[in-house]
Design goal:
eight-stranded mixed beta sheet; 52% helix; 2 domains; 13 helices; alpha/beta; 8 strands
């Protein structure tokens, strides 16, 4: 198969993704909440089953509270959230009859309390042309796919977008970004696999600046947070961007794979320190029973959560809502 045929095949595969042809229009938010609820079903079902197993007695006692705290910690909600929930129940319902629905209500309220301060949209500063977004994360978190979805979203809002294929280690990543660029109507700056990533990023930044592009999104190679040489290279990319465009990157978004659970905590800690992360994108919430990790991360770091994803379609990246997430994770009604 020729290179052109291979790229056409990639484009055909992308076009066949469910819902990929057109972004959801009417009733988009309602449809999104349905997908979010379905995506978090593994998390909500497991959490609900474990909570139900705790309440074998009608009156709330110390043993039930201890067991509930263990359930919440096992769901990756974090010690702080688990303690806050059990403290509320101890204060308000101890030695009184308590139902599973009452526990769910307290849980939902505490999740909203933890997430509301970080549920902030990604702000594109029109004073910067381009506004530079650097995407970082470990291997397999969905950086390149997220870039494609974000580019399509920004183009749909009327912004001109350029993409920089900074993951020069993988030919597939370059091709994938080019396919997304074609779909989103965004120019892609790329070089052959194995090229110097810093040099490519510098050229892309200068090109976007000179052309007056609204947004430049820079892809980077996936790297484990414990690989010193790779993290040092990422720091170099950040410095190179700043040389081309003083003050850039203006946004550094870390993609997190929800299925990694507690490992995501160390990723946030190290990438924030080494790359100056300004916001988070949580992906693959539809493939895990550990969606509670987002709550623990929000509580510990306080970084804005801009988007979450529950699928591979072009419209499966949506602004984060604390209320919707809480409702979906505890299995409560509709948003």
């Amino acid at each position: 198969m020729s290179a052109a045929e291979h790229r056409n095949a990639l484009a055909d595969d992308a076009a066949l993704e469910p819902g990929a042809s057109e972004p959801d229009k009417g009733g988009a938010r309602k449809g999104w909440f349905g997908r979010l609820t379905a995506g978090l079903r593994k998390t909500s079902n497991r959490l609900g089953e474990n909570i139900a197993s705790v309440f074998t007695r009608r009156k709330l006692d110390a043993a039930m509270l201890e067991a509930l705290e263990d359930v919440l910690i096992e769901a990756d909600l974090g010690m702080e959230v688990a303690t806050a929930i059990t403290d509320t129940l101890r204060r308000e319902r101890f030695d009184k009859e308590v139902s599973e629905s009452e526990v769910r209500a307290v849980l939902a309220a505490e999740i909203v309390k933890s997430l509301a301060p970080v549920a902030r949209p990604l702000a594109i500063d029109g004073a910067h042309r381009p506004h530079v977004i650097l995407m970082v994360g470990v291997n397999g978190t969905g950086k390149t796919t997220t870039i494609g979805k974000l580019a399509a979203k920004l183009r749909g809002e009327g912004s001109s977008v350029m993409l920089a294929a900074g993951d020069t280690f993988r030919a597939a990543a370059i091709e994938q970004l080019q396919v997304w660029g074609e779909r989103a109507g965004a120019e892609v700056v790329a070089r052959p696999p194995g090229s110097d990533a810093s040099g490519l990023v510098f050229d892309a930044a200068a090109r976007a600046r000179d052309k007056g592009v609204d947004v430049l999104i820079v892809d980077t190679a996936g790297r484990l947070q414990n690989r010193e040489e790779l993290m040092a290279e990422l720091e170099k990319i950040v410095r190179v961007i700043a040389k081309a465009i003083p003050g850039a990157p203006h946004s550094v978004l870390l993609t997190l794979d929800a299925t990694t659970g507690q490992n995501a905590v160390s990723q946030v800690e190290i990438f924030e320190k080494r790359a100056g992360v300004t916001g988070l994108v949580m992906t693959k919430l539809d493939g895990t029973a550990r969606g509670g990790i987002l709550v623990a991360i929000a509580r510990r770091f306080g970084l804005p959560v801009h988007f979450i994803g529950v699928g591979e379609a072009i419209d499966d990246l949506e602004p984060f809502s604390a209320d919707e997430f809480a409702s979906a994770i505890v299995g409560e009604g509709t948003a």
